[in-house]
Amino acid sequence: MSKYLITIGLETHVHLKTHTKMFCGCATEFGSEANTHVCPVCLGYPGALPVMNGEAIKQCVIAGLMLGCEINHYSTFDRKNYFYPDMCKDYQITQMEKPLCIGGGVTIDTPEGSRRVRIHHIHQEEDAGKIIHYARHSGVDFNRCGTPLMEIVSEPDLSSPDEAMAYLHNLRQILVYAGVSECNLEEGNMRSDVNISVRPEGQEELGIRAEIKNMNTFKGIYAALEYEIERQLYIVKKGGTITQETRRWDADLGETQSMRTKENAHDYRYFPEPDLVPVTLDKEMVEQWRAALPELPAARRERMVKEYGIPEYDAGVLADEKPNADFFEIAAKLCGEFKTLSNWFMTDVMCLLSESGKTITQCSLTPKSLAELVTLVKKGVINGPTAKELLPELFNDGLMPAKMVEERGLAQVSDSGALESFMNEVFEANEKSVADYLAGKKAAAGYLTGQVMKLSRGKADPKLVNKMIAEKFAGMGG
């Protein structure tokens, strides 16, 4: 039976993090009332002329530098002509002949090892509006129309849905680290067109491709790829021919559906944008931007393992989101307890983040307060259970743990005399548990420790309590 090769390429559209649109002064704010952030320029009124957003150009170049692209110091804009309700000018200002960024790539991990997925180019353009479908009619919201967008076009280097997910995750992470986009999929500021083709093993020429448009969830992209690969394989194995077309993903039905025959570049009648001058970038300015680039996520993970001695898994979790990594590194320098701090962040703190739906920058917890909490436990001032009780208040109210411990009298009881008094009281009140332990039921010791902790209102040093109970039983012949 013939084997078939899968080929996947992605065209990823990313909103840039600017306050205003690509060619006018309208706000890019998400979630506003429909058609309130519009003007004659982004609505395409006759005689309204575009003015280029320099910050958008800078952010696109920074993205290219982070991805290892070659930067075009001379770049031009073009008109892509097509009629669709969400494009009120009937053309889109984009880049065809001379895009800002050429080449580059994203490294992904595969079962066979690390591999570089090449990028063909990154070009700058404006976004279209958003069509909203209702029960009996449809409407268009032009708030998004004209939002600065960069399109990152990969080479057809991907061969499975898993590789596509790895590429998109790493691409998103790099762009967020660069500070050029929020890459918030729910708000639609990271979307991908997915190109898929199949061909018999040994055939050099790529198969005829189908394109799935405007996918804005990783889960949806994965499911659409799985379905489309199976659809194409079924057709070619039966001796059929794949049609070059644009398809859409229907999440409810779990299938791709044909939309239209795929257009080629000449169908759009590209020509140079007459209302914009070319973009010329000073080499010295580009090098200044390059020098200010943040550390890449992969490099940061590697450094954190070496610098803090934490496992690769910990470094991967912490570095996955830049604000989390920033928070950890600040706290680590304050307390010096790297692995303990990592454990606290990855378990208790991330649990609170998940439950609250907040990010680390949105909650009231500070690196200083978490570092102080870890230090108090390390020095034996408070025990672990007390620290866990305090953490939600630090998270929600921004309090400092040392002051809370002092004001509330929460300091750990490590005085052997006080603990012995608690222990004797517990032994007298729990004769059955004492007898059970002496009869060989060693789990009874844990119950007795818990009773001592309860009697001390959680302030007893649990390790010392365990030791003293063991010594007491040893003296009783247990």
Task: Please tell me about this protein's structure.
With 478 residues, the protein is an alpha+beta fold. It is built from 15 helices and 17 strands. α5 (297-308) crosses α6 (312-319). The chain starts with a strand and ends with a helix. The model has no long low-confidence stretch (mean pLDDT 90).
Instruction: List the domain count as a whole number.
Output: 3
Number of helices: 15
Strand fraction band? 15-25%
Low-confidence stretches: none
Largest beta-sheet characterization: 10 strands, mixed
Q: Span from first to last CA?
A: 72 Å
Number of strands: 17
The chain-level structural class is alpha+beta
In helices, the fraction of residues equals 40-55%
Shape: elongated
Could you tell me the mean pLDDT? 90
**What is Rg?**
30 Å
Helix and strand topology:
Elements: E1 4-15, H1 54-66, E2 70-71, E3 74-75, E4 78-81, E5 91-94, E6 101-102, E7 105-110, E8 113-126, E9 130-133, E10 138-141, E11 148-154, H2 161-178, E12 190-200, E13 210-215, H3 218-237, E14 245-250, E15 255-261, E16 271-272, E17 279-280, H4 283-291, H5 297-308, H6 312-319, H7 322-335, H8 338-356, H9 367-378, H10 384-397, H11 401-408, H12 416-429, H13 431-438, H14 444-455, H15 462-475
How would you describe this structure in keywords?
single chain; about 475 residues; alpha+beta; Arc Repressor Mutant, subunit A; 3 domains; 10-stranded mixed beta sheet; 3-stranded antiparallel beta sheet; 17 strands; about 20% strand
Question: In summary, what is this structure?
Answer:
The chain has 478 residues and is α+β, with helices and mostly antiparallel strands.
